[in-house]
Every structure is written in structure tokens, then in C-alpha cells.
Amino acid sequence: xxxxxxxxxxxQPDPDLYALSDAACNPAAGGPQATPAPGDDAPATLEIRxxxxxxxxxxxxxxxxxxxxxxxxxxxxxxxxxxxVPDTALIARLIPEADDVLIGHAHYDHILDAPDLCRQTGARxxxxxxxxxxxxxxGLPPEQLLxxxxxxxxxSGPWTVRGLPSLHxxxxxxxxxxxxxxxxxxxxxxxxxxxxxxxxxxxxxxxxLRVMHIDSADFIDTELAGHRCDIVCLCAIGRQAxxxxxxxxxxxxRPKWIIPCHWDTMITPVEAEPDLLPGVDLPGFLREIEAExxxxxxxxxxxxxxxxxxxxxxxx
Length: 316
Ligand SMILES: [Zn+2]
Prior knowledge:
Layout (H helix, E strand, L loop, with lengths): L2 H5 L37 E6 L5 E4 L4 E4 L8 H6 L6 H7 L5 E3 L5 H4 L2 H8 L2 E4 L1 H9 L7 E3 L5 E4 L2 E8 L32 E7 L4 E5 L6 H4 L6 E5 L9 H9 L3 E5 L20 H10 L3 E2 L7 E5 L8
Parallel strand pairs: 3-4, 4-5, 5-6, 10-11, 11-12, 12-13
Antiparallel strand pairs: 1-2, 1-14, 2-3, 7-8, 8-9, 9-10
Bound molecules: zinc ion (ZN).
């Protein structure tokens, strides 16, 4: 680790923490690999790949939904001082397929790479009206843009996705870059050109498993209550600002697994060893999850978790 990083107190995650993950769901530990065959009623395995920050790829081999992709990750100085240019080749190499791309909120570390990914794959960009303004700025055609105010089921191939209105967490006591876009921002944008817009927690229902994506550390109790899920992708940064964060998530959603996200600094190259965000207590987060009776699946960046799907999953 460079000296300047040590001087400002950056650390890397303890590799032992990854071992807390359920070995049966971890391909690195010899878990099953999805091999859906044409004509199968239901792919038996769902793969969730972590992209760093709040990014995930959810795929059963037949259908792929991507959430909050952000692979470009310029360094700290470039992020703060220059327009942010998506790394088209990197996006194509690491996310070759997508049917739909869902945006939790429109901050740069959640949306910057989404329009490029949609352009390369033909996927739709689905998110708030602010997220759609970002897609327009990047040149996506109307047929690849879908705005939602949440609370509506949206067909995504054989799956259903639904945005639940939510809130942005407080980082060091304040909500960064609040507000909405009512016109396309400059493209490529600077960090401050992208306010968060409506925040959406995404529920992805594959027919066999239900996955909730919470990309910022706050939420609205009445929106989440009663939406039972199998897996929650849960933001780590800012969780201390929300009293009973993990406890209330588990009370509302009753998940079996929680995959922590948004715990790294997002300024290291995506294929390099990540640094922990200052203020993120990852061991404490994992302990809180376990204390609620849920299995934490801490996943390395670009690592994967595999889940068996019940036999009635997918299209008939
Ligand atoms: Zn944000």
C-alpha cells in the first residue's frame, strides 16, 4: 500500500473476513456452477457477482440484470477534478451481457458506467427520472430508457423488478449532492453534475429467489415492510447514521443472506486490491448481521456467489 494511503489511515480488508461467507454459495470454495441447457424449465442456479461499490450482476445464465455498475473508478484526484469518462473497454470486458440495468440513485459511483453498458449490450437503463436524464446525456435512445417513480412491477424478461422509494444515507453527517435533474447534465460529467435524484431500493424477483438491493444506508420502513426476500445486497457506508439499520432491515425483509456492499474506497482500479472506506467497520457490520440470525456473504470485488433456485423458478 502506498505511504500516502497509510498516512491518511486507509486499510485493506482482512482476507479472513471473506471466509465468513457460506462455502456452499461460494464458487471459490467449490460451489456448483450454473449450466442451464436450452429448453430447461428453470435454471437451477442464480449467480450474483459483486462489482465493487454498490454494483452487482445477477444472472441465471439466461437472463441478466445489472445494478449500479461502476467499474471505471478513476483515482481520487481525477475523481475530484476532472470529467469522469467511462472506461468502455473495461466495461465490455467485465460485463459482456446485460438485459436490464437498474439504477438505485444517480450519483456518479452508481450510474457513470450504466449508459455505456446499455449501449454495448442493448439493455434498458431503468431508474428515476434523474437517472434517465443521465442516459439521455450519454446518448441512449428513448427505447432504452425507462423512468419509474417506484411501486410498480416492471417485467424484465421472465423476471419482475420493482423499485421501492428510499432515502440516501448520511455520509459524515450530510447527504452528498442532493436534488434532481430536469435536463441532461454535461457528458462526460463531473462528480457534482450528478445529484442522487429519487433513491430506489430494487427488488429483483426471479420467480425462484427474491433479491433486494439497498445501495445507500437509509430506507423508508413503510416501503420495505412486508417485502420478504432471500438475499439483501446491503450498503455498508453510513450505516452508523441510521439507528438499528441492520436490525430493521432484517425485521422487514427476513433474508437468509446479506451481501455487504459499498465498503471500498472506489478509487482503486477494480481489479486491484481494494481499500476499506474510512469509517466502515466491516467486522462490526458482519457481526451485526450474524447477530440477527442472517448469514453474511462478504464477497471480494469481482467475486461471485451461487444460489440454488427452487425448482419452480423461471418460465414454465
Ligand atoms: Zn450516493
